[in-house]
Amino acid sequence: MRAYFLGVRGSTPAPGESFVRYGGYTSCVALAHDDQAVPSLILDSGTGIRRVTAMYGAEAFAGMILLTHLHWDHVHGLPFFAAADRDDSRVALFLPEQPDGAEAADVLARAMSPPHFPIGPEGLRGKWSFSSLAPGTIEEDGFRIEAREVPHKGGRTYGYRVSDGTSTLAYVPDHCPSVLGPGPEGWGEYHLDALDLACDVDALVHDAQMISDEMAAAAFLGHSTAEYAVELGRHAGSRRVVLFHHQPDRSDDALDELTRRFGPAPQVIVAAESLVLQL
Ligand SMILES: [Zn+2]
Ligand SMILES: [Zn+2]
């Protein structure tokens, strides 16, 4: 399968001349089967999801959207995804089952409805379904998807492990492992759910909002350091670690510097909007 990195930023979009090379759209990764020209599984709907429309050309989107959680940087692109907001689209959206048992569409509508936004989820054109997902495994559209709850801050959050039967990618964009203890280096615990998600994957796409000098901010904001992400990949046997969800002030020059911090194994890639990984 191929993984398209369409938005690699966390928290809020980062436009401007200091962010041109890595990009300023918020979290969105789209997966395509090798024999498909366009992606059919989209991980998160940050503002980067707008870029899927150009990939579809004149066609309507047909596929799945999996949300890791409901924070703005993971949902704000949804009503601006033009290839999905048309009469002939077909979209199955899944989000984490909520502790209060609320229906998926109602959970989305808390942030996406008047007076916060002109329409609610039911106002999107096309055939949409909104479903809650419990932790566990589902098989859809040729993908095997495993959902695990991971610690973050402010709302239930999942990491996903996606396989097409040949290749496997883990997607853990928002993760606060220090909630479970300091771990061996003080960056957070290498806990079982994170290790299972990342075990022997071709690529681990992981929260790298912070760096180790910013550990206090990482813990306060509910995020990980880049160093934790790389070591998690090493512990879990990941072949590549893709540092993702860059904080909005991390400039192109600072991200260039991040690429030079790590050794050759596992391979470390700093996610940029131009990145396409063949897995
Ligand atoms: Zn986020
Ligand atoms: Zn978040």
The counted number of beta strands is: 14
Helix content: 10-25%
The whole-number mean of residue pLDDT values reads 97
Q: SSE order in H/E notation? A: EEEHEHEHEEEEEHEHHEHEE
Question: What is the percentage of strand-forming residues?
Answer: 25-35%
Number of helices: 7
Main sheet makeup:
7 strands, mixed
Taking Cα atoms only, what radius of gyration do you get, to the nearest Å?
A: 17 Å
Strand order of the largest sheet: 6-5-4-3-2-1-14
Give the N-terminus to C-terminus distance in angstroms.
6 Å
What does this structure look like?
The chain is globular. A hairpin with an 8-residue loop joins strand 2 and strand 3. It contains 7 helices and 14 strands. With 279 residues, it is α/β, with parallel strands linked by helices. It has a 7-stranded mixed sheet with strand order 6-5-4-3-2-1-14, with no helix packed on it. Strands 7-8-9-10-11-12-13 form a 7-stranded mixed sheet. The model has no long low-confidence stretch (mean pLDDT 97). Bound molecules: zinc ion (2 copies).
